[in-house]
Write a structure and sequence with these properties.
The protein is built from 12 helices and 13 strands. It has 367 residues and is an alpha/beta fold. A 7-stranded mixed sheet has the order 2-8-7-6-5-3-4, sandwiched between helices. The chain has a 4-stranded antiparallel sheet with strand order 9-10-13-12. The protein has a two-stranded parallel sheet with strand order 1-11. Bound molecules: pyridoxal-5'-phosphate. Pyridoxal-5'-phosphate binds at residues 44, 96-98, 122, 165, 169, 196, 198, 226, 228, 234, 239.
């Protein structure tokens, strides 16, 4: 039976918005191409998995699945507060940092407000601002790096928030310590500064600002972090934000009552205790990042210097084509075509073996 035509129109803010396209899941690629093995280097996930301590904690927590979780994840907030040296009241725990972005725009963006952000950066800033009727004010990157002066200059009376993704996804670049601190001090008090540090733990460069301690001095500063990346809990959906308690209180009004589940809370708490796993991941990622960057260089390809768990490589030809060719050989990356740099691919750092297979296959594809 044919479905009847639907006559109710959605809010006009949704006109022209697309549906988020994630990196292709392994299962989908295997099914579509009939491949037995697929290496996924497309979504900046942790190739080493996640902490065994988190697994044990989840096994225990299985007993309690019939009961709703604690809505604000207070045990996790307490553990994070200790680790970060902040007050638990300064923290909000989200269903991924994605949810916190959504809560921020839902709570603060009014129709006609502007939000300053880079181009190219994490696309959810743009989407969430538009959903609420706001307008992104786009400031192009300079050589893949946030143009903080340009972003300051773009702030006007209508500006409600600014987004700084540090390290930036998809380029992996960071802004220098002094530059970011000066920027934060110059943004007017009525403008929220959202610093997205999803890849914070991977940074090995010394000239990188830890913004969490600044939250105490800047009531308009929000820092976002996640358990999806270095902690390897992407599927559980858990992240957090550090900010002035008064902002937390507003976001709490908007958040779903049970936004993070028991498994995620238990796994995140346990993950914070596994310093050894964290260090192993940092080291493995740094080695992989260096390997892929230096191999790209040997192939005559340039790349953005990355401090994340991915590298964006400039190919001098269509990223879509190279993406398709790699896909046929069982490797998924992100084409720069969907990320705003059409002649690039972004490859996530894998295990040593995955990185070697990627480089070998990239050579085949480019030849
Ligand atoms: C810069 C950045 N921010 C936020 C997120 C969202 O992470 P999650 O919602 O899994 O915490 C991602 C995920 O890729 C990201 O790259």
């Amino acid at each position: 039976m044919a479905l009847l035509e639907q006559k109710i129109t959605a809010r006009k803010e949704l006109d022209g918005l697309g549906v988020y396209k994630p990196g292709k899941p392994i299962e989908e690629v295997k099914r579509e191409l009939g491949l037995e093995r697929v290496i996924k280097l497309a979504s900046n996930e942790n190739p080493l998995g996640y902490s065994k301590m988190a697994k044990e904690a989840m096994m225990k927590e299985l007993e309690n699945i019939a009961f709703y979780p604690e809505g604000t994840a207070p045990v996790l907030a307490e553990a994070l507060a200790k680790k970060l040296n902040v007050q638990p009241e300064q923290l909000i725990i989200g269903n991924g940092s994605d949810e916190i972005l959504h809560l921020i725009t839902r709570s603060y963006i009014r129709t006609g407000d502007e939000a300053v952000m880079a181009n190219v950066t994490f696309p959810r800033y743009d989407t969430n601002v538009r959903i609420e009727g706001g307008t992104p004010a786009i400031v192009p990157l300079i050589d893949g790096v946030h143009d903080l002066d340009g972003m300051l200059a773009a702030i006007n009376d209508r500006t409600r928030m600014v987004f700084v993704c540090n390290p930036n996804n998809p380029t992996g670049t960071i802004v220098g310590k002094q530059a970011l601190e000066a920027f934060i001090s110059k943004v007017p008090e009525h403008v929220l500064i959202v610093v997205d540090e999803a890849y914070f733990e991977y940074v090995t460069e010394e000239d990188y600002l830890n913004t969490v301690p600044l939250v105490a001095s800047y009531p308009n500063l929000i820092v976002l972090r996640t358990f999806s990346k270095i902690y390897g809990l992407a599927a559980l959906r858990i992240g957090y934000g550090v900010m002035n308690p008064s902002i937390v209180q507003e976001l709490m009004k908007v958040k779903e009552p049970f936004n993070t589940n028991r498994m995620a809370q238990a796994a995140a708490i346990a993950s914070l205790q596994d310093e050894e796993f964290l260090q192993t991941c940092i080291q493995s990622n740094e080695e992989g990042r260096k390997y892929i960057s230096s191999e790209a260089e040997k192939m005559g390809l340039s790349y953005f210097p990355s401090q994340g768990n991915f590298v964006m490589i400039q190919l001098g030809r269509s990223g879509d084509e190279v993406f398709e060719a790699l896909l046929k050989k069982g490797i998924t990356v992100r084409s720069g075509g969907v990320l705003g740099y059409p002649e690039t691919i972004r490859v996530s750092i894998g295990t040593e073996e995955e990185n070697e297979t990627f480089i070998k296959t990239l050579k085949e594809v480019l030849n």
